[in-house]
Sequence to fold (287 residues):
Amino acid sequence: MKILSLVCITLVTLLIFSCADQSKFSVSPVNNLNSNPLSTPTPTPTSTPTTITTGSISGIVSDASNGNAINSATLYISADQATTQTFSAANGTYTISNINSGTQTLVVEKIGYVSQNVQITITPNQTLSNSNVSLMTAAFSSDKYVITLTWGSSPTDLDSHLLVPASPDFHLYYQNKGSATLDASPFAYLDVDDTTGFGPETIRIKKSGNAPYYNNLYKYYVYQFTNNEGESLITSSAIVRIYNDSTLIKSYNVPTSGSGRYWYVFDLDGSGNITDNNIIQNAAPTL
Ligand SMILES: [Ca+2]
Fold:
C-alpha cells in the first residue's frame, strides 16, 4: 500500500512537471506585422486656385447736347439686371462690378432721354474704364445723325472734325461749328467741344429723307489737340459712336497701335452707308 502511494505520488509529480514543461514551451502570440501595415499618408488637400471670371466697368454718363453730367441714370447689364443695377452719381460717374466676362450689353436709362444699349467686352479681373456714355433726348436726336466722341483723362483735349460735302465743302470743327439750327449750310453742327478730358464732343447732321442731307461723302476724324509728353491717341480710350434717328448704329474704339495725331474714323455716304477707316495717321483726310 505504501508502495502504491509512492507510485501515485510519483505519477502526480510527473504529470505536474509535464504540464509545467508544456507551459514553458508555449508560444506567446506575437503581433502579426501584416495586421498593422504602414499607414498610407493621407494626402493633404491642396487648395484649388480661385479662377476669377468676372470684371468691372466704369465711366461717366453725360448729356450729349451740352456735356453736363447726368445724375441718377440707371445702368445695368442686360443679362443680369438684378445683381448689376446701379445709378450714376451727381458727377455722372458709375461703376458696375462682378460682371461675367465676355460680350455684354450695358443698358443706360434716364427719364426724358432715349435709352441706350451699348455692347461691351468684359475681361476677367479687369476694369473697363472710361466707358463713357452720352444720352440724348428724342428732340435732340430724332431724324438726325449724331456723332459722339468720348475718351479718358489724357489727352485732355481731343477734337471732332467733320468734312461736309456742301457747296463749297465745309470743314466743321470747334472754330467753324456750322448751323446750330441745322437749317442752313452745312446742315450740321458741333454742339459740344470738350477741352478737359472725357468728352463728350457731339456733332449732329441733318437728314434728307432717310439719308444724310448731302448726297456725297462725309468724312469724320478726331484730332489730338493737346500733345504733352506721354499723351497719345492710342492710350486715350476714345470711343466714337454714330446714331441714326436716336438709335446707335456704329461704335469705334480707338486703335491701340499706330502713330500720329489724326484718327480717321469713318466715311458716311449720301445713302447712309458707313465705311470703316479706323486708322491712326499723320495727316488729316481730305474730301
Ligand atoms: Ca475738344
Q: What stands out?
A: Residues 157-159, 193-195, 201, 225 surround calcium ion (CB under 6 Å). Residues 6-35 have pLDDT under 50 and may be disordered. Residues 48 and 125 are 18 Å apart (CA to CA). Residues 2-25 form the longest helix (24 residues).
